[in-house]
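The records we work with from here on pair a chain with its fold. These numbers are not coordinates but entries in a learned vocabulary of local backbone shapes. To see the layout at work, look at the sequence and tokens printed below:
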Amino acid sequence: MVGDSMIHLRNVTRTYSSGSGVVRALDGISLDIPAGGFVTVTGPSGCGKSTLLNLLGGLDRPTSGEILVDGIPLHSAGERALTSYRRNTLGIVFQFFNLLPAMTVRENVELPLLLRGESARKAAPRVDEMLDLVGLSARSGHFPHQLSGGEMQRTAIARALAGCPRLLLADEPTGNLDSANAARVCETLLKIASQKIAVLVIVTHSESVAAMASARIRMLDGKIIPHNNGPAGG
């Protein structure tokens, strides 16, 4: 790890070839996010937000530059190391929940622990803790189709946290919700941040979500726009 940074990016560039030439999705980004940080990433469509999230998730590699998360060099790690990173260090929350419809709330939250090789009995206390955290203990036996959109998203958050990740990435976690359900999800995110359960990095178009964060990254044309409230950029 570099200094006190949980996440460290230096001169990160990601380019893609297209019919009209080379697209610079990220253009020399430098960034540090400390342990316990709660950061939102905002900007217009096509500015590089999703590319940044994919790189932090170990789902893509930079064309050039350095990315370290919790001391793991994502820019140079092999596939086995990246698989271990995604399984043990990372949690991801998607806009459209990605819950398994044939499983109950509890079974969805339990699944990552079972895939890791834990027994249901060993996993039970952690599952109970996460369901309590997101306020869904009373709904644990329900199936996704019996839940509101906000309850499905909070289930997805509980599932993402079940494996005790150091980093939680969320892609538009309130983008598919009405205002009431979005507010409940925001309450859950704030609770995670206040208890420093994981570093939060959230891509959002929502000003209300962005305003909750301790730091905000604004992006445009693959670059971070300098401003006074945010992590150190390059």
In short: The mean pLDDT is 89. The first helix runs from residue 49 to 56.
